[in-house]
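Researcher: I need the complex structure. Ligand is flavin mononucleotide. Inputs:
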Amino acid sequence: MNVLLINGTIIGSKTKTLLSEISNHLNHSLVDTKVEQLYLEDYDIQFADARSKEEYNEDTKELINIVEKADAYVIATPIFQGSIPGVLKNLFDLLSPKAMRYKPVAVVANGGTHQHHLVIENQLKPILDYFKCLVTPNYVYTHDSHFSYMNELIDEDAKQRIYELVRVFRHYVDMSQDILDGDHLKG
Ligand SMILES: Cc1cc2nc3c(=O)[nH]c(=O)nc-3n(C[C@H](O)[C@H](O)[C@H](O)COP(=O)(O)O)c2cc1C
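Model: Output:
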């Protein structure tokens, strides 16, 4: 079992802080599970343009392979211009529509505007629904003010919501395994 924590941006560090919190909880609570963090800034990613996977550069191919092979995901995203960053949407566009089917996904996001948690509801969740992911009913949206000037998460309520997200996500991981074991459409 391989849980991939995807940082859906190439700038900033608050989403990395959120993923580190998640990673700590997951490492304590999931046995026989590899938890890996994926930073998109580490890859020279090409734009998805419908060419075959083999025709992309090595970094883009590697990125697609890592994401498609993972069994479960935590996706972290900042809010940019009332939406998700283009680099994260581009990652989704690079994937096979079957790549994340019935796989569990938990979402954490950060923004400078309180109301922009709706970006998760109205924009990110519909994409994950298209992929037929098992998206947890809860997600964590933090505001810039929940962090110290060193970008440490200091808001106790946000920390508690992350703990609760991981608790639910663990059940979705189990549920996904049960569903995938019986998935006759696999492949
Ligand atoms: C180009 C850009 C656009 C942004 N647009 C929004 C926005 O529409 N809504 C919002 O809540 N925050 C917006 N923000 C604020 C970022 O979401 C927020 O500052 C970021 O998550 C902070 O994380 P960081 O310090 O790790 O970069 C924007 C930031 C940038 C750089």
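Model: Summary of the prediction. Helices lie at 14-29, 58-69, 86-94, 118-130, 156-181.
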